[in-house]
Amino acid sequence: MTLFANTTRALIAAAVVGCSAALVVGCGTPARKPSPPAAPPTVKPAATPTPTPPSRTSAQASPPPTTTAPSQAAALPCVTSALRVKVPASQGNAAAGSSYYPIQFENVSGASCTLFGYPGVSFVTAPGGSQIGPAATQNPAFAKKLLALSPGQTVHAELQVVNAENYPASDCGLVTAHWLKVYPPNQTAPLYAGFTASTCSQPRQVLSVQTVQAGLSGP
Question: Do residues 112 and 75 touch, judged by C-beta distance below 8 A?
Fold first, then answer.
């Protein structure tokens, strides 16, 4: 074999080996293309909260304040210290074994006040002294009504005084009283009025009183 032939074979063998290597590379598993990066998650803008209407108990549920001045407050009940009492014997009148006198309540305070209902009345030995006989009963001849007294105004309650001499002496224990103890309606502190009359020291009913009425005396 000549030198030329050997050289030729060597070149052919090298070419075959190179081709085989190329085929191996070309026929092998192709390299996986890298995946594209995942898109970032879409972030939705936060929803704007819908304002909740105020509840019925909020301040808006009440009517708006007005600029009108409030009406004058109703007058309070007349306390004992706001009143002066007297029982004028000269204004009494007699009928059917009894005499009737107005118990007059004058508002001596600087503010209006009200009276409603019956006063409490009894004979006593002196201001702050002992009671004589039973206290007056309530006579429902007139319905109770609220009376407003301006400063200096006077109203009255009619007092009935039964003639104590109508009772048997042994059952009455006849005495002469000079003072009346008077509780204004719905008050617990008394007033005293000078008033002279015969009454019973025994438990015999002599006094009766009506509810307060307008004016200085009855008809």
Answer: yes
Nearest CA among 197, 196, 204 for reference residue 173: 204
What are the backbone angles phi and psi of residue 154, rounded to the nearest 5°? Answer: -125, 140
Cα 45 to Cα 204: distance, rounded to the nearest angstrom: 96
**Rounded to an integer, what distance in angstroms lies between the CA atom of residue 100 and that of residue 201?**
20
- SS3 call for 53: coil
Give 157's strand partners: 103
Residue 76 token pair: 């309070």
Residue 61 φ/ψ, nearest 5 degrees: -70, -20
Q: What topology does CATH give the domain 76-214?
A: Immunoglobulin-like (2.60.40)
Separation between Cα atoms, residue 210 and residue 143, nearest integer Å: 9
Residue keyed to tokens 């190179």: 18
Return the domain boundaries, the chain.
76-214
Residues 6+ apart with CB under 8 A from 168: none
* One-letter-per-residue 3-state SS of 108-145: CCCCCEEECCCCEEEEECCCCCCEECCCCEEECCCCCC
State the DSSP H helix or E strand holding residue 202, giving kind and residue range, or none if neither: none
Q: Token pair 């009928």 is at which residue?
A: 95
13-62 pLDDT tens trace: 444 444 344 433 344 444 454 455 555 555 454 554 444 444 443 333 33
Q: pLDDT of 146-171, one tens digit each?
A: 999 999 999 999 999 999 999 998 99
Query: 198 CB contacts (<8 Å, ≥6 apart)?
Result: 163, 164, 165, 174, 175, 176, 177
